[in-house]
TrEMBL record:
Alphabetical keyword list: Membrane, Transmembrane, Transmembrane helix
Residue spans crossing the bilayer: 36-59, 66-83
Protein name: GDT1 family protein
Length: 172
């Protein structure tokens, strides 16, 4: 039974790492790597502080069954919201996003204002920070509810895969 928990924690953590890594990769490729890495490092430091302060206290003073129930309810509510959006988009009741057109429009605005540079872009750093922080907090809850070994394995595996995928993705 322990292998099933390990596999579930690994896969759940891997999904979160892929989401965070994808956003950081997009920020690095489209805006600049300096902003992406500064935001990522700031989020990692913030996560370390948050986990150090609240991680032990949360596990020590909140019963694990209550924590699992609360996290489970939150996940179900978010999942239902995303499912509703997907059904509305698939049925044609909600417009599909043309992400490439939106991105090109935003980049054209930035170029017109002369804001596309190789120096630190605050919005790019903030985007990387928020994505890594959010996905990291999700991994922290996965670790609390399932176990820590699989989450660290997922991090190492996904970071390795992401770094190896960077050169071909930059050519797109």
């Amino acid at each position: 039974m322990e292998w099933a928990i390990t596999v579930a924690a690994f896969l759940a953590s891997a999904v979160e790492f892929v989401e965070a890594f994808t956003i950081v990769l997009v920020v690095g490729v489209t805006i600049n790597w300096r902003s992406a890495l500064i935001g990522t490092l700031a989020a990692a430091a913030s996560l370390a502080v948050i986990v150090a302060i609240f991680g032990t206290a949360l596990v020590r003073y909140v019963p694990i069954d209550v924590l699992r129930l609360v996290v489970g309810i939150i996940l179900v509510l978010f999942g239902l919201k995303w499912l509703k959006k997907a059904i509305l988009r698939y049925s044609g009741l909600k417009a599909l996003h043309d992400e490439e057109a939106i991105f090109e429009e935003n980049m054209a605005e930035l170029r017109a204002r002369g804001e596309v540079t190789t120096s630190l872009q605050p919005y790019a750093a903030l985007l990387a920070f928020k994505s890594v922080l959010l996905e990291g907090l999700e991994v922290a809850f996965i670790v609390i509810t399932f176990g820590s070994n699989a989450a660290s394995q997922a991090c190492v595996t996904q970071c390795g895969l992401g770094v190896s995928a960077r050169p071909p993705l930059e050519q797109l």
